[in-house]
Amino acid sequence: MSEASSAARLTIVVADFINNDGSGKTNILGGGVSLIGFDPMQGVTNRFAVYAHAEFPSSVLPVEVSVELALMSGDDVVVVPGGPMGPQAVRVAQTPTVDRVQLPIPVSMRDHVGGSTNVILDFQNGLPLAPNGNYEFRLQVDGDAENEVRYPFVVVGPPSGTVVG
């Protein structure tokens, strides 16, 4: 566990659509999704996006950290769905250097707000996940499982057909 990982405030949001605009603001539409639909004709989920935010207090900045966002299955294994490029883990890792805000404001204000880094994943074509499956997005800093954050959701399969007999 690092000083940065124990001091970090971590957030995950799953939504219908997420992007960053030109000014660096994150736009979230339909946030707070915990049920994701499944299209049986295509064999994939409906479109969805994930926003992961790691915020650090100024007392640990500047700092280089490892930030990892991974999709975990119900049995706590990184999901590796098939696709046109073959099986690939749904996992993003980056090592940003997080610094204090550099706006032209007094130093005491810069120290007040700290710094942050984001990861946004947009699954505009859905993911080939199992219908009626339980999943979680996991966000970790510096591999610290003790201070990680998880966001559970369910892929809702098509309604079952009529049972006769």
Overall description:
- This protein is mainly beta and 165 residues long.
- Helices cover 7% and strands 44% of the residues.
- It has helices spanning 3-7, 107-113, and strands spanning 9-15, 17-20, 26-29, 35-39, 44-45, 48-56, 63-64, 67-73, 91-94, 97-98, 115-123, 133-141, 149-156.
- The strands form 4 sheets. Strands 5-4-13-12-8-9 form a 6-stranded mixed β-sheet, with no helix packed on it.
- The longest helix has 7 residues, at 107-113.
- The radius of gyration is 18 Å and the shape is elongated.
Approximate helicity band: under 10%
The whole-number mean of residue pLDDT values reads 92
Main sheet attributes: strand count, strand direction, barrel closure: 6 strands, mixed
C-alpha geometry: elongated
Low-confidence stretches: none
Q: Number of DSSP strands? A: 13
How far is the N terminus from the C terminus? 58 Å
**What's the order of the H and E elements?**
HEEEEEEEEEEHEEE
How big is the Rg?
18 Å
Q: Beta-strand level of the residues, as a percent range?
A: 35-45%
| CATH architectural type | Sandwich
The number of helical elements comes to 2
What is the class in the CATH system? Answer: Mainly Beta
What strand order characterises the main sheet?
5-4-13-12-8-9
CATH topology: Immunoglobulin-like
Overall number of domains: 1
Structural class: mainly beta
